[in-house]
Design brief:
By secondary structure, the protein is an all-beta fold. Helix content is 2%, strand content 62%. The relative contact order is 0.06.
Length: 803
């Protein structure tokens, strides 16, 4: 309309002006005032369609009616819905200012993406500063359109994408043993865009307290990692009574990953997981941490030289057993090696190779410092007194000759040296007295005493050796006339090896000594480095060993019923069926026979592994291993001393068309909280944290273990089965379980059951250990979004109250 200076657009109207984009089914533009009016239009059923959609830069919202002035950049909006960095803001009346701020009346703030949200905070009035924050007046919680008597005088909702420092509000609750508690309260500090720090503290009304620190860091294309540490003084019982206990509990975790693009020749990584046994029982709220008897850590560094065959590696290693509380540390373990080189080969050499071209040489060296202790003594001053340490290096020069396929002869000349900080000496002491603790009348006077002498000593040896190896391959094939099964192939790989080292005592230093027992007149030969980490570099006399091994594989080739081509599919029946033993020619003795086999069935869904150890020597009347062969005494090749069978089965239904639902993240942004993180909600335990996959209706994992051992006259049997899995009862209900049975003790092992319910923008978890020492339960309902993660209700009973 030229006269009224108006433009009216109908049906899928679009207006673009600078960085502003407006879409609606009806748009009226007044050219004189430079203002626009937009709203939807009713369809044939009377329902409004094509409601206005406004976008300016990162600001994006839908509305029922919109009026906007391009000159003043102000607007009036009715029934607006805008996205605010993970949350949604609804308002019946809204005024937009020229600076982009939005003043609203009768608003709703929620993280639910439904047009009619399942819950929201009703805001009487407020102002939204896009990309920064939302500030409101009095507000109250509405759940399923039911106002709850939970209100706040004002509200502050940050909507910035940048991390900010601030106070961490503690969670509260009660335990029967330790009393009321405030947990994980503290301060969060943003040190930079690549580094943050979190300090927290816990306190219980009956005296228990703890402090913790956590940091995350990342440098793009370089490295990333996180570190967390916690220390507790745990108090249980009443002071002055017999049940009063005080323990110092601590936990350290560190993860460091180097980006592959950072450096092609130098790597550094760390994976540390260390805690005291009492920490796992008193402060770990994941039952799997307590049931895990072994933990290990490693900090490693490696360096490769680009134009030289050298490499260097260093590591700090840790392992611990919570059953006996032992801790093993390697502080540090280092090695420097040179790869194999052929000194007689020239780079520009051409023509036929000579025998000297196969002479090869290498260099290896290592240094270790190992500590064995218990966790309560780990940081005591005397922990390094009993450390075992040493250094060794070797230079082997060898030559290899293959007269025919499957047979090789390798003479070599080896130099080996070791450096120790101590050595041992033994002597007869007539004043030594031994009293049998089980029978004090049984007293022995005089004995061989071992003295440990401190000081650096270096030992070395140079010795030739000869090794010969025969390892042919024998193939067997059987062809079938069936339509599907075509071939079965058996491959045998026997190996026979001979290694010989001559007696070099006349030419090299002798590190072996003799001591006589005056009571029995028996002479014992020992090495002054018997307790050394790398043993003695030289052999006491000559050595000659025959090594025997036999490897078998069995596979078949079949036609796949789904494949119309003539190609055959290879299926493994037995991945391995192996035997291994050795014979010492000098001492005329056999070693134990090792046997192991395994295979996978049903497209790798079932894994079967069997191993056994057999001793070729019989037992005497006292159950002690004798020097008489089992074949001669009992007419058997060997006797079983141990065997282990492990069967693992992983079954699951075919994946459907469902989708993975975030269990602790925002359903819109996909933001996740890691339940293994020490700062994750501690009340949400024994649950299938992480992604809950509703596309798999069910899954079942079965692990069966059977162990048998009989080193002497007494035998021991261990037999157990462990089952875990989950079941999607409906597209929104998930049931998980973890249980087992011990066939020896005839008891059900620790069992936990969890139930998960997807409530769209909320989620609910119920988990329980129904019986046993860890009997407990947890109920947890919360908003998925991390923005309102404190909008939750928890109820739990800890297993700690059972002790």
């Amino acid at each position: 309309s030229i006269s009224s200076k108006e433009i009216q657009l109908y049906k899928d109207a679009k207006v673009n002006y600078q960085n502003i984009n407006l879409q609606a089914n009806y748009v009226k533009f007044d050219m004189s005032t430079e203002s626009v009016l937009a709203h939807g239009m009713p369809d044939s059923t009377g329902k409004l369609t094509g409601l206005p959609h406004f976008k300016q830069g990162s600001e994006d919202f839908d509305a029922h009616t919109l009026t906007y002035n391009f000159k003043s950049k102000k607007g009036y909006i009715e029934d607006v819905k805008s996205k605010q960095d993970g949350g949604f803001l609804h308002a019946t009346e809204t005024k937009r200012e020229a600076n982009g701020n939005i003043n609203l009346k009768n608003g709703k703030y929620t993280t639910c993406d439904a047009d009619h949200p399942h819950y929201y905070l009703a805001l009487t009035k407020g102002i939204s500063i896009p990309g920064k924050k939302i500030i409101s007046g009095p507000a109250y919680l509405v759940l399923e359109d039911v106002p709850l008597p939970i209100g706040i005088p004002f509200g502050f909702f940050p909507s910035t994408r940048k991390s900010t420092s601030g106070i961490l509000i503690p969670s509260y609750g009660e335990e029967q043993v330790r009393g009321f508690y405030l947990r994980d309260g503290g301060y969060y500090l943003v040190l930079s865009d690549h580094w943050d720090f979190r300090a927290t503290a816990d306190i219980f009304s009956k005296g228990t307290w703890g402090v913790g620190a956590n940091t995350n860091y990342r440098k793009i294309y370089k490295f990333s990692g996180s570190f967390a540490g916690k220390f507790y003084t745990n108090i249980s019982g009443e002071k002055g009574l017999s049940n009063y206990r005080v323990s110092r509990d601590y936990s350290i975790t560190w993860s460091h990953i180097q980006d592959p693009k950072a450096n092609p020749t130098r790597t550094f990584s760390a994976n540390v997981n260390f805690s005291t046994t009492t920490y796992d029982r008193n402060h770990s709220y994941d039952i799997n941490n307590y049931l895990n008897n072994r933990k290990s850590s490693s900090i490693s560094y490696s360096k490769l030289w680009k134009y030289a065959p050298f490499n260097f590696a260093a590591s700090f290693n840790h392992s611990q057993n919570s059953l006996d509380r032992t801790v093993d540390l390697s502080l540090p373990r280092m090695s420097f090696n040179m790869g194999t080189i052929y000194p007689m080969r020239w780079a520009n050499k051409s023509g036929k190779q000579k025998w000297s071209d196969n002479i090869q040489m290498s260099y290896t060296s290592s240094m270790e410092n190992d500590i064995h202790t218990v966790d309560t003594l780990l940081f005591k001053p005397g922990v390094f007194k009993n450390a075992k340490n040493g250094f060794q290096h070797s230079i082997p020069i060898s030559w290899s000759y293959r007269p025919f396929n499957g047979f090789s002869i390798s003479p070599s000349l080896n130099y080996r040296g070791v450096l120790y900080t101590s050595h041992v000496e033994k002597h007869w002491d007539p004043n030594y007295t031994y009293v049998n603790p089980y029978n004090k009348a049984d007293t022995i006077h005089g004995g061989i005493v071992t003295d440990t002498l401190q000081g650096l000593t270096y030992a070395h040896s140079l010795y030739p050796s000869l090794s010969m190896t025969l390892n042919p391959k024998i193939y067997g094939m059987y062809q079938f006339r069936g339509e599907r099964l075509k071939f079965i192939r058996h491959v045998m790989s026997p190996t026979i090896g001979l290694s010989y080292v001559p007696d070099m005592k006349k030419f090299m230093p002798n590190y072996y000594r003799s001591v006589v027992d005056s009571n029995t007149h028996k002479t014992t030969t020992y090495s002054i480095y018997d307790n050394g980490m790398y043993g003695t570099p030289s052999v006491n006399g000559q050595s000659a060993n025959l090594n025997f091994a036999l490897r078998n594989t069995l596979e078949m080739k079949v036609h796949s019923p789904k494949d119309t081509s003539d190609e055959l599919k290879k299926v493994s029946l037995l991945e391995n069926f192996d035997f291994q033993t050795s014979y010492n020619i000098i001492t005329n003795s056999w070693s134990n026979i090792n046997f192991n086999t395994g295979t996978r069935l049903m497209n790798n869904k079932i894994d079967v592994r069997l191993s056994a150890l057999m001793d070729p020597y019989a037992l005497d009347s006292l159950g002690v291993r004798s020097t008489i062969l089992e074949l001669r005494k009992n007419h058997r090749l060997a006797r079983f001393t141990s065997a282990q069978l492990n069967l693992t089965m992983n079954l699951a239904s075919r994946q459907g068309k469902g989708s993975k639902q975030s269990s602790t993240g925002n359903q819109n942004t996909g933001e996740m909280q890691d339940a293994s993180n020490p700062n994750a909600p501690l009340d949400a335990v024994n649950t299938n944290s992480g992604m809950v996959d509703f596309s798999i209706p069910w899954s079942l994992n079965i692990n069966y273990s059977l162990g048998y051992s009989k080193p002497g006259n007494t035998s021991q049997l261990i037999q157990s089965v462990r089952l875990s899995g989950d079941l999607s009862l409906t597209p929104k209900w998930k049931l998980g379980f973890n249980s087992g049975y011990d066939f020896v003790s005839h008891k059900v092992t620790t069992t936990d059951i969890s139930v998960y319910r997807d409530l769209h923008c909320w989620e609910m978890r119920i988990s329980c250990v129904p019986f046993g020492a860890f009997q407990s339960y947890n109920f947890y309902i919360n908003v998925k979004s991390s923005i309102l993660k404190d909008l939750k209700y928890t109820k739990r009973k800890s297993w700690y109250d059972n002790f």
